[in-house]
């Protein structure tokens, strides 16, 4: 009798192991849109949106259990918000946004209000530093500026700045880079673009 119970126990353990392996395979396969890392979610979103893939991921901005992945594509940037799920997997951020394909013809800047994160790309290789002004223009309050930020541009033309002192109560829906200036190595202004003047 004892031998039969041991055999049954071994069978039960074997069945549990098989069930766990199947569940783990499903969890990490991407079938349920959960992946091992923010990078994997990022590339899956690009594939699903039919652009890219990015040549490289330039930066991952982490904030708690969320991450904003930013990559470089042929004609600009790609940005996807992700979040950590059960068992340490990553998925597209619930209620977040897929900025996705962000074309940059010359030099461009973008602001993510959830991460309070300013980033952009300069295609002009002579630009060493940028000065970006964040602001808004809505029907109730008109044009407003919230701050100007001096940012170093890296060798690939990418730049970013986080922990921006945006006032509490300001709606991120209206905040955008309204003015961008590019400066060469000597500090001379060589590029200027104003969102309100386009």
Overview of the structural elements:
There is one protein chain. The chain has helices at residues 2-28, 38-48, and strands spanning 56-63, 66-73, 76-84, 90-92, 100-103, 107-112, 117-122, 129-138, 142-152, 158-162, 176-183, 189-194. A hairpin with a 5-residue loop joins strand 3 and strand 4. 25% of the residues are buried. It has 198 residues and is α+β, with helices and mostly antiparallel strands. The strands form three sheets. Strands 1, 2, 3, 4 and 5 form a five-stranded antiparallel β-sheet that branches. It has a four-stranded antiparallel β-sheet with strand order 9-8-11-12, with no helix packed on it. Strands 6-7-10 form a three-stranded antiparallel β-sheet, with no helix packed on it. The protein is built from two helices and twelve strands; from the N terminus they run H-H-E-E-E-E-E-E-E-E-E-E-E-E. It is 19% helix and 42% strand.
Element layout with pairings:
Elements: H1 2-28, H2 38-48, E1 56-63, E2 66-73, E3 76-84, E4 90-92, E5 100-103, E6 107-112, E7 117-122, E8 129-138, E9 142-152, E10 158-162, E11 176-183, E12 189-194
Antiparallel strand pairs: 1-2, 2-3, 3-4, 3-5, 6-7, 7-10, 8-9, 8-11, 11-12
Radius of gyration: 23 Å
Record field, number of beta strands = 12
Strand content: 35-45%
The mean pLDDT is: 83
Write down the overall geometry: elongated
Counting H and I runs of at least 4 residues, what is the number of helices? 2
Q: Encode the helix/strand succession as letters.
A: HHEEEEEEEEEEEE
- Look at the helices and sheets and give the structural class: alpha+beta
Helix fraction by DSSP (H/I, runs of at least 4) = 10-25%
For the report, how would you describe the main beta sheet? 5 strands, antiparallel
Low-confidence stretches: none
End-to-end Cα distance = 86 Å
